[in-house]
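Database export, one record per block. Field names are fixed; values are copied verbatim from the stored entry.
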Amino acid sequence: MHPNHLHHTNDSDSFNVMSTAANPLPPVTLSLSGRTALITGGSRGIGAATVRLFRQAGARVAFSYNSASDTAMALAESCGGPDLCHPIHQPLNSIEDGQSLVAKAVQAMGKLDILIVNHGIWPPHDQPIASMASDQWRTTLSTNLDSVFGLVQAATAHFKETPAHFQSHPATAAPRGHIVLVASTAAQRGEAFHADYAASKGALISLTKSLSSELAPDGILCNCVAPGWVATEMSAAALSDPETSKKVMSLIPVGRPAHPNEIAGPILFLCTPFAGFISGEIFNVNGGAVLVG
């Protein structure tokens, strides 16, 4: 099957609508053919699911990882090898780290059309604000916000080097760039005992809206995906605790956490031509949780 005809053989449903005798129309495809993406935090969880899905959609992908070297290399190999899926070791703890990663991605891939900012940390222990150490606050904000500024700044500068065909033919030309920031339901309603995380992710929502107003006229579209609870390595400790899990599930109307593919899908959609008139939006993917409690 053509890689742009997204077909899943795992536990997620196929995105492809095949033509039949009763439906002679060609299949609907979410294609990123000819596009090159940088995905941060791409070795595990939501990031790895997004890397796989972007490759299935025909994009060339660079992705960052911090410590999971073996996992990153195996993922890259399974997605076509370094020419098509290039892993980059890069901690993301500062503005300079973000800028450096974009430079490495452009050097490795030759160009960049899409930036997916997926990385982040969530200290799993409950920490009252009255006793939260300044080091914890600073570390969370440095990773979840400062590095994002560096990434967005460097990627935007690169996108603006692309010829501005978007302005003269906005209905038919591909955008000069896409930025998708991954926030959280905590960004919208807060999270008790995790004020550092909620504040950092809330800032991404404001950043999305600011970037949209500034960059959309230049053909650079910025949107945000805000997941709720997702069954990943980062949330495993909380979701495996019976008391915590019971409380979490009671606040999710669909009654379960998301699979990483269910977050990767909306991220992909926002970078396709079907989303060419979407800018500055917060795409909630949380099983209805943000409306409860």
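Remark 1: The beta strands are 36-39, 60-65, 85-89, 114-117, 177-182, 220-227, 282-285.
Remark 2: Residues 1-15 have pLDDT under 50 and may be disordered.
End of record.
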